[in-house]
Write a structure and sequence with these properties.
InterPro entries: AMP-bd_C_sf, AMP-binding_CS, AMP-dep_synth/lig_dom, ANL_N_sf. The longest helix has 15 residues, at about 70-85. Strand 1 (about 5-10), helix 1 and strand 2 form a beta-alpha-beta unit. The chain has 2 domains: about 5-255, ANL, N-terminal domain (Rossmann fold, 3-Layer(aba) Sandwich), CATH 3.40.50.12780; about 265-350, 2-Layer Sandwich (GMP Synthetase, Chain A, domain 3). The N and C termini lie far apart (about 55 Å). By secondary structure, the chain is α/β, with parallel strands linked by helices. It has helices at about 20-30, 70-85, 100-110, 135-145, 145-155, 170-175, 230-235, 275-285, 315-320, 345-350, and strands spanning about 5-10, 35, 45, 50-55, 65-70, 90-95, 120, 130-135, 160, 180-185, 190-195, 200, 205-210, 215, 225, 240-250, 255-260, 265, 270, 290-295, 300-305, 330. Strands 7-6-8-9-10-11-12 form a 7-stranded mixed beta sheet, with helices on both faces.
Length: about 350
């Protein structure tokens, strides 16, 4: 057998306008142009079926360069549009970075519907669209301080919220203000969100392994890690992608409990930091919070929380009791987050320790 046919791979330029990027993504999907990488990468060529290369966040180690095929991108787009009831001519609003799969998906989906992406980043007046994709931080701002963004969200048929969990209080607040939220869960390796409102999109399969970790499969699964093919083989040996997220099923719905590495051991008790944040927001609605652990002689790892508002430790401990009770509160100017709005626990620890 001969070698696999290759195609050129070029990095997306920050100088491209959104219309230019949309045109080049369309050409990458059809094969009329080179494959595109969201970041600079050493590879100059990829297999001919690869359309996009997108880096993972690298929050638990070196970022992986995820190679996504044309077929996977189309499968993801079609499944999302079927769930949303989107039809040709419908529009998408771009509010998130195009360096990540979520932003690139917005462009690919608009292209599939035959419309131009509405670039609503860094504007003072939003142009309405049928569908919007945002991160929890943006939803929080719309509900608490940004009236124009809230108006933009309420005008949409659906607002996809991904990149991290939202609390029940935030979901209820959004519903009360007529924002049609669709929660999404997924990762770059599955071409972005593939679980909508806690249920898999068409073609997606989900299960839990013996340790409660989520496994996913479907036609939108990526092809490989360009910079770590061995890790990809280990994670997908049986055709399922093994995530690092802990989940559980309740009434047929998948609840993501957090990353396996978001658990600390404090005083011999395992504590989910994501669960602490959810519990906190049940008692202190619409208050941003980040939970993290700091090495401690007495506790092993001391449960701490970071806030942007002044709450006394005693007030918080009165609501979060037992093993869920934080030992210390830090007040930050803002909650440290990644570019996609996920809380950055490593950065929080550094801030707390003054590093």
């Amino acid at each position: 057998m001969g070698e696999t046919e290759k195609r050129e791979l070029i990095a997306i330029s920050a100088e491209w306008s959104i219309p230019q990027l949309q045109e080049k993504i369309a050409d990458a999907i059809t094969g009329d142009g080179p494959a595109l990488s969201a970041t600079q990468i050493e590879n100059k060529f990829v297999d001919s079926n690869i359309a996009l290369v997108v880096n993972t966040s690298g929050s638990t180690g070196e970022a992986k360069s995820v190679a996504i095929s044309t077929q996977a991108l189309i499968a993801s787009t079609n499944a999302a549009h079927k769930y949303l009831g989107a039809t040709p001519g419908d529009s998408w609003s771009l509010l998130i970075p195009t360096t990540h799969i979520a932003g690139l998906n917005v462009i690919a989906r608009a292209t599939a519907l035959g419309t131009k992406v509405i670039d609503n980043r860094n504007v003072s007046d939003f142009v309405d669209a049928d569908f919007i994709s945002i991160v929890p931080t943006q939803l929080h701002r719309a509900l608490t301080s940004d009236a124009k963004l809230l108006e933009h969200l309420t005008a949409a048929e659906a607002v996809l919220v991904g990149g991290g969990p939202i609390s029940e209080s935030m979901r209820k607040s959004a519903a009360d203000k007529h924002v049609k939220v669709v929660t999404t869960y997924g990762m770059t390796e599955m071409c972005g969100g593939c679980i909508y409102n806690q249920k898999p999109l068409e073609g997606v399969m989900v299960e839990l392994n013996r340790d409660g970790l989520i496994r996913l499969s479907g036609p939108m699964m990526a092809t490989t890690y360009l910079n770590d093919a061995r890790s990809w083989q280990n994670l997908t040996a049986d055709g399922w992608f093994q995530t690092s997220d802990i989940g559980e099923f309740t009434d047929g719905k998948l609840k993501v409990l957090g990353r396996a590495d978001d658990v600390i051991n404090s005083g011999g008790e395992k504590i989910s930091l994501t669960a602490i944040e959810d519990l906190f927001q049940k008692h202190f609605a619409n208050t941003e919070v980040i939970a993290f652990g700091i090495a401690d002689e007495e506790w092993g790892e001391k449960l701490c929380i970071g806030l942007t508002t002044n709450l006394s430790l005693s007030d918080v401990q009165a609501k979060l009791i037992g093993i869920n009770s934080p030992k210390e509160i830090f007040v930050f100017n803002q909650i440290p987050r990644t570019t996609l709005g996920k809380v950055d626990r490593k950065a929080a620890i550094k801030l707390a320790l003054g590093k």
